[in-house]
Amino acid sequence: MSIKQPFVPGLDRVIAAETAISFLDTEREKIIIRGHDLIDLSVSNDYLDVVHLLLDGTLPNASEKSALEDTLKKHYDIPSYVMEILSLLPETTHPMDGLRTGLSALSSVDKEIESRSTEANKARAYKLLGKLPAITVNSYRLINGLKTVQPDPTLSYSANFLYMITGKEPKPFEVKIFDRSLLLYSEHEMPNSTFTARVIASTHSDLYGALTGGVASLKGNLHGGANEAVMYMLQSVDSAAEFQQLIQKKLVNKEKVMGFGHRVYMKKMDPRALEMKESLKQLCEKKGDYSLLDRCEAGEKTMLEEKGLYPNLDYYAAPVYWMLGIPIELYTPIFFTARTAGLTAHVMEQHQNNRIFRPRVSYIGESY
Known about the structure:
- This protein is an all-alpha fold.
- Helix 5 packs antiparallel against helix 10 and helix 9 packs antiparallel against helix 10.
- Strand 2 and strand 3 form a beta hairpin.
- It has a 3-stranded antiparallel sheet.
- It starts with 21 loop residues before the first strand and ends in a 16-residue tail after the last helix.
- 58% of the residues lie in helices and 3% in strands.
């Protein structure tokens, strides 16, 4: 006999957890992070401020922020065995798989791997936030037969991350825009990867295992990868008119147009997308080239007129990353690395007040 409860495909609008971390208030167009509006934070704060807010519960003062950055820099180094493992991956490896492999391998040297205390998890969170930029970049470089690059502790956290990606010290305005993207990607309530991490954590699995599952979730093209797909679309045409034609052709063929629509933002534009759109305008002005902005705005207009859909964060993050000189294959790994702050906060919260996830089903099989 089937359980007499309504079946909701995709758990759409089903409440899966109580959390003090974040909430998407779509009616007021706010993304709330521990009582603060994420968009307001993106104007007056930077990524490390939000890391401290997510993991420690408050925005840091100057000394706390300096201490946080010093802590992360102490964890920049990557164990030699992890680099050796990454060097053995074949060139056909997806960069997200390289990131997943490196992340999982880090658990081997955690001497307190069995501890689920808040203190132990927080220490792991800082360690991962320090190491993941180097793992993200160097797994990609090794897969592609390139020389590895070492972190530069004289640079700020975001400047070092961008430096490792591009191989050159970024300009201050580039660092500011890249940092803003990390902040906007840092936390977003309960998307699939966060739910995955919490489900794994609910079994009392460790932080590394929970985040490894999160990487696997984000690799799926219905969750992550939209920023990469958007950039490939933008690259395939030479003008705004051609981009409109490309989108219209996809709609006629009933193909999904990546970078548009969101399970939560149904009637309004993702406020993070508006912030990245502004960043794209700033980059275009600095570089004197508005071609990508023109294409994006043409695509935005077409999708709103034809389907009533708005851009999500990935739509405008893609051309921003392109103009910063970031390889397309790294867009989703960067997304995950930034989201590590929010994911670790959720795993910590799950471990603090845990009940294992064990839903039931509505049976539609053979009668018995």
